[in-house]
Amino acid sequence: MDRRSFLLSIGGLALSQLLVGCGNNNQTKLSIQLLKSSIPSQVVDKFSQALQPKAQLKFAPVDQIQNLYQQLQRWQEQPKTPDNQQAWTRWVPFMNSQTTTVVDLVSLGDYWLKSAIEQKLIQPLEAAEVQKLQYWSKLDERWRQLVTRNDQGNLDPQGNVWAAPYRWGSTVIVYDRYKFQELGWQPQDWSDLWRDGLRSQISLLDNPREVIGLVLKKLGKSYNTENLDTVPNLEKELQTLNQQVKFYSSNTYLEPLVTGDTWLAVGWSSDVLPLLSRYPQLNVVIPQSGTAIWADLWVRPTKASKNDISSKWIDFCWQPEIAKQITAKTKTNSPIFPDIAATDIQEPIRSLLQTNHQIFSKSEFLLALPTSTAKQYESLFTKIKTS
Q: Which of the residues 24, 150, 169, 362 has the least number of beta carbons within 10 Å of its own beta carbon?
């Protein structure tokens, strides 16, 4: 998905913080490649301090989730480096994502999970390992379902656990509150995008699944509808919405809103929330009828060796206090749903990160669709934009 290959990076793990706990060669080691800005450096420090016995930790931030996926593919293609050959390269700090040495864990977006399983780029977590995870049973059932899949990468309650979610976000509506004061109303749901006064005032993501998906949601259908021909009035609704749109983009969709060229945008919470403190005229709402949700996951490369310290890291990210830190620093949600106090995060972001379980239950992960269905989405989207 476009969101997973584009990131507005604000802060995050610095290169100087990649290698933690340097020590003798007999220490346990953990190496992780992760999406830049998805884990605060303070969390890595706390994990290092809490570990007994001490260990060498190396966290390599990578700019785009797509690069992490491609790295998994490269590891799968190359022969595994023997333990006694070039062992020194494993603990040289990463200067980019082109490392030839397989790491212990990698960040991956949920949308890429099916493909990673199908291509055998990752291995499942062992059943005994999952049982030892203290917070696994405390995750909402939907998170456990998301990562429990068969060998084809499809959701399957009898399948293996292939990943561990550590943060998530949603598709949101962000708008200029002052412009809407002139209209006399405030957006609350997808249907508001069709209202009078918004012609050529909206910027949308240049993404067929997101745009067609929000129309499907307005019509009471699923984001993951597999046959668009079965949805009455879908094309008509899309054409009407297109008249409201001034701008399609998946990376600069917020710029016209900030400059006043548009009044409203639809975008990803990970891009939108960091902007609120700088642009107080902006307000954000999660659509009441439900929205698309995404998750960042920990996965284990196929050629990685399983070790206890990687399991400890997964569980550590789910500790309520640590989950709060990840939420506060990265401005994303946690699958643990920690209570957020006024002292943890200031408004207006706090209310957006306090999960509304009613809306969450109506929201959906964007599941990978059959190739023929994906082409149907792309074809209809292109037709609407060029009409």
A: 24
- Name the CATH architecture for the domain at 171-292+364-385: 3-Layer(aba) Sandwich (3.40)
Tokens found for residue 250: 């998946």
The string of pLDDT tens digits covering residues 34-78 is 999 999 999 999 999 999 888 999 999 999 989 999 999 999 887
160 pLDDT band, cuts 50/70/90, is very high
Cis previous bond, 280, omega within 30: no
C-alpha distances out from residue 316 to 20, 44, 131, Å: 16, 10, 15
Tokens of 4: 């997973």
Question: Is pLDDT above 80 for 275?
Answer: yes
Shortest CA distance to 317 belongs to which of 340, 339, 301, 333? 333
User: Length of the chain, please?
Assistant: 387
Helix (H, G, I), strand (E, B) or coil at 268: strand
E-only strand ranges, 46-131: 55-62, 105-109, 122-123
Q: Check whether 306 has a pLDDT greater than 50.
A: yes
Ramachandran bin of 21, using left for φ above 0, alpha for ψ from -120 to 50, beta for the remaining angles: left
Backbone angles phi, psi at 87, to 5 degrees: -60, -30
pTM here? 0.86
- Ranges of each domain in the chain: 2-168+294-352, 171-292+364-385
What is the rounded CA–CA span in Å between residue 55 and residue 20? 8
Q: How confident is the model at residue 12 (pLDDT cuts 50, 70, 90)?
A: very low
Is the Cβ–Cβ distance between 289 and 217 less than 8 Å?
Answer: yes
Report the alpha-carbon distance of residue 285 to residue 262 in Å, rounded.
17
In terms of Cα–Cα distance, which of 31, 41, 81 is closest to 298?
31
**pLDDT single digits (tens) 355-376:** 788 999 999 999 999 999 999 9
Examine the pLDDT at 256 and tell me if it is beyond 70.
Answer: yes
Euclidean distance between CA atoms 322 and 163, whole angstroms: 19
Q: Which of 91, 10, 14, 86 is nearest to 272 (CA)?
A: 10
Diameter of the chain measured on Cα atoms: 70
Residue 80 has a pLDDT of 54
H/E stretch holding 7 reads none
- Give me the architecture of the 2-168+294-352 domain, per CATH: 3-Layer(aba) Sandwich (3.40)
